[in-house]
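Thread: sanity check for a docking pose with glutathione

Original post by kr_44:
Hi all, I'm comparing my docking run against an independent structure prediction. Below are the sequence and the ligand SMILES. Could someone generate the full complex and paste the structure tokens? I mainly care about where the ligand ends up relative to the chain.
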Amino acid sequence: MVLTLHGVATSTCTKRVRTVLEEFNVPYELVHIDASKREHKSPAFLAVQPFGQVPYINDDGFKLYESRAIARYLVLKYGDVGALIPDPADLQKTALFEQAASVETSNFDVYASGLAMENIFKKTWGAEPDLALVTRLKTTLEGKLDAYNAILGTTKYLAGDEVTLADLFHLPYGSLLEQQGIDFLVSGRWPNVTRWWKDISSRASWKKIDVPA
Ligand SMILES: N[C@@H](CCC(=O)N[C@@H](CS)C(=O)NCC(=O)O)C(=O)O
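Reply from moderator J.T.:
Ran it for you. Here is the predicted complex with glutathione included:
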């Protein structure tokens, strides 16, 4: 049975999973969840994903939600050992990978997703962005990028000199920054960040699935 991904092609978290599927050419079927009909809040959907959020996967009867957990599962099941996640036998490389993955959720996602909410998603239901919040989020993210620039001045990627999921996790919300006219990743103001961003965002997997939100 082909793996099914239950989500929305344009949604950030569905894109995070699709990128990994494309990295390893895993055959899959995208089962579209129609958010306008609140399909993600239906009893059938909630029975699998109790928070009513996309995406989840069904891999031969094994169901899993949370895009980053799905990504880890897919890499370990379908990838070569050491590709995108370090070989689990290497404790220190694994720990550095987990550190970098945690950096993404703690120091990037919270601000970049907040900006997407204010500047993009709110418009879809006719709400106005909270401009004071936008300023706070941008200022905090600028400070975080100082640290990113320092990290990426010593290694090619966030967890060392090999690309990992920790890098790829940034793609969905990172690309939405550009869509909002926030040039933090591309301007060269943080040169190591720009070098890194150009590298990861030009991967064939991302180019294939990136459709505007
Ligand atoms: N941490 C979850 C977040 C999932 C999530 O927030 N999905 C959004 C779309 S990107 C969603 O379904 N939003 C609708 C809602 O929360 O009601 C993941 O990474 O899978």
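Strands lie at 3-7, 28-32, 56-59, 62-65. Hope that helps with the comparison, let us know if your pose agrees.
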